[in-house]
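Contributing new records

If you add data, match the layout below exactly. Sequence lines come first and carry their own label; structure lines follow with theirs. Keep one chain per record. Anything else will be rejected by the validation script.
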Amino acid sequence: MGLHLSIEGSIDRVVDRAVEKGCNTLQMFSRNPRGWRSKKLDKGEVESFKLKLRESEIWPVFIHTPYLLNLASPKESVYIKSVESLKDELRRAAELGVPYVVIHLGSHLGHGKRGGFKRIVDAVNSSFSAVENNVTLLLENTAGTRNSVGSSFEDIEYIVSRIQNERRIGICFDTCHAFAAGYDLVSKGAVKHTLSRFDEIIGLKVLKLVHLNDSKGSLHSRIDRHEHIGMGKIGERGFRNILRSRLGQLPLILETPIDKRRNDVENLRKVRELAQ
């Protein structure tokens, strides 16, 4: 269980932060998430990062792609930059020894899902061909906000089934996004049914990571707003059932808010309490 943590200062310091907060896994950006350009990784920082990981036994580690990427974009300039950024992240992950890169599927901007699907499939296939390594790309389900791609299991399966190198593709399941998209995660029966549908349509074997977030929005609200664990519409009951399901056996990364009500370490504590 872990958190999405900052690389401020130097990239190896993210491991120090994870240890301080009691994490045994972590997620991070490999660079500034709000810009297109990336600075070359410092060799000394890379070696220090790897050493600290080995000593801490924090594993696995996940890199999240920057916010600007939109592999479904019909805008050529954005699409080209997004594909180049994805290739860059795959290279950086390999350099850092990180096995997974997580990516949002993006928005078709009103040009239709099918066109968006094709853009994503072409982007991933061309990126894998250009960057041949063992890094696995995890596609994250979306909340179903307007024009977004990948909120339904059927949409995700359509994309995954068209990726040529199936060995390098997996899924990151975000609980807030799934709930907002209409997949019930509150009762034990609801969690079981949602996972059964996932297995039937996509297959649980490709599920590699869970983003454990409560939801400010109600079931099927299509509102992408994370809430503290147990304080949202999924609630403590939902997370007890989630943590006792197959999802609870996977690496868990929290992306919960930090405010006066609770910080990230307190959210980790709450998850551990609910899991007992």
